[in-house]
Design goal:
The chain is mostly beta strands. Helix content is about 10%, strand content about 45%. The strands form six sheets. It has a four-stranded antiparallel sheet with strand order 1-2-3-4. The N terminus is likely disordered.
Amino acid sequence: MCYTQNRFNALLSACVLSLIATAGWSQSLTWLGTLGGDYSYASGVSADGAVVVGRAVNAAWPHNDRAFRWTACGVMQDLGTLGGCCSWANGVSANGAVVVGWAANAAGYSRAFRWTASGGMQDLGTLGGDESYASGVSADGAVVVGWARNGAGQDRAFRWTASGGMQDLGTLPGGGWSEAYGVSADGAVVVGWAFNADWQGLAFRWTAAGGMQDFGTLGGDWSAAWGVSADGAVVVGWARNGAGQDRAFRWTASRGMEDLNTTYASLLTNGSHLEWATAISPDGRYIVGQGVNAATGRYEAFLLNTRCTLDGDVNGDGIVDDADLLIVLFNFGNRCP
């Protein structure tokens, strides 16, 4: 097994080096192809960009979605299923070695899986029901989160580890349903949404010490958390305001739930707004999601850089100094395509 893993690591390293040698530091766009069908969709990427995961239609008839793992050497691998028709990959570890998602089993039920090159696709089971879905994985691939059906037919957020199995994270007081969407780098913080006693769906942040914490809303009746920073301190998602509008939010312990449309109003043109925040960079600086762009009159993906920058601060550390000058000197004369 160790020999196989070493060969896998060596091949991955060779692919990465090949990509670097070919592209250098230039900008690039790479189309990943399909598994023989007519579309593919990427949903996760490793820390260095060398491994991408998602789903793609295969060539068999009838066409089915299959979880894939693509590497920098240009190979899209079909990760298979658990005996059924289809599968989706939703997340990948920082080094690209562990993939999580869901796959159909022989009985036609969806099951959360964890995939590795050495172990293949592992069924993570359920909480007593018939289905489960994995949506996120920690940086080292050891912790998987998602939701699974219990014996009463309710979906419950779970946190899975090899030693502890699938742990039911419960719900908000009086509620019956919950789903987990994101996990911190070390696996200690889980975020998602859960029903309370009034059947109100609310964003939550879970830790072993504090349990499930309700974030509330922005004055409306619903919210959901989708992404969390590496240290678990910053959470993003969407919440309904008092006017019944969906608005992107950011939560921290010190500031609570902020409407990004209010905090960054100076960046928005009249008529534009940010509806959903779906992911956040490990350091909490970048937030991505979907909003309405008034200039085009359509829904569009957005990238929000939350760091205040100074003219001349090339490396974005908040100081204009010799380090910025060196970056300019080493790149003098270069231009973007």
